[in-house]
Amino acid sequence: MQKQNEFLHRVRQAHQALGIPETFLSECRMPLCNEPDELADTETDFYDRPQQLTPAARSAWMKMKQAAGTEGVELFLISAFRSLAYQQHLITRKLAAGQSIDVILKVNAAPGFSEHHTGRAIDIGTPGCGALVEEFENTKAFEWLTRRACEFKFALSYPRGNDLGIDYEPWHWCFHP
Predict the structure, then answer these.
(1) Integer angstrom CA distances of residue 171 from 5, 6, 62, 99, 133
(2) CA 144 to chain CA centroid, nearest Å
(3) pTM, whole model, 2 decimals?
(4) Which residue from 153, 151, 90 is spatially nearest to 120, judged by alpha carbons?
(5) Using one digit for the tens of pLDDT, what is the confidence trace for 112-143?
(6) What pLDDT was estimated at residue 4?
(7) Please, what's the b/e burial string for 42-52 (b: 16 or more CB within 10 A of its CB; e: otherwise)?
(8) DSSP character for 138?
(9) Can you list the alpha helix ranges (DSSP code H) found in the chain?
(10) Over the stretch 73-101, which tens digit does the pLDDT of each residue have?
(11) I need a labelling partner for 98 at 20 to 30 A (CA). Which of 54, 60, 114, 145 fits?
(12) ∠ at Cα 164 (112, 172), nearest 5°?
């Protein structure tokens, strides 16, 4: 309980710093996403940054990536675990660039609500397609993921028309053990 209270306190602080209304915590349609107790290093991402996942998610990701590769489909990480502070930083940068918090929260989960906090969510890319673009849905990688990701316990988190308030993200998949 202490850990959950500390997490909620950090979430409230981040929201206050970003100008997210206090009512957001009770009105958000997404569940709170706690940070994991254990993370394991995985490969560097598309931007050559070190990445981490929970051990189970890392193992499932590696198996899924290998299975896709044996079928001629290349998958790579664009991002994985993000701390609460990192999520706050992403939003702060967008605010500084002049975007409104309402617009930002349609494409970035508020701190505390990002599946990336869990260490189980990954953004996936493939050669020949820009990073984090809707056109990813037109790739062999997306077609493969749609057919096979469930075998590795990964699911598309934000399908078109989802009721969570997040725009469609064909690249965002989460491991559900």
Answers:
(1) 32, 31, 17, 23, 8
(2) 19
(3) 0.95
(4) 153
(5) 999 999 999 999 999 999 999 999 999 999 99
(6) 86
(7) beebeeeeebb
(8) G
(9) 2-18, 24-27, 55-70, 84-96, 101-107, 140-148
(10) 999 999 999 999 999 999 999 999 999 99
(11) 114
(12) 75
Cα-based distances in Å from 81 to 2, 16, 99, 101? 23, 23, 24, 22
- What's residue 12's pLDDT? 97
Place of tokens 């609500």: 113
- The answer to whether residue 2 scores a pLDDT higher than 90 is no
CA distances from 164 to 30, 31, 107, 109 (A): 6, 9, 11, 10
Spatial distance between the Cα atoms of 56 and 40, rounded to a whole number of angstroms? 9
DSSP secondary structure code for residue 109 in this structure: P
- Look up tokens 């979430």; give the residue: 11
**Order of strands, edge to edge, in the sheet holding 172-175?**
76-79, 121-125, 172-175, 154-156
Alpha carbon 75 to its chain centroid, in Å, reads 16
Three-class secondary structure of residue 14 per DSSP: helix
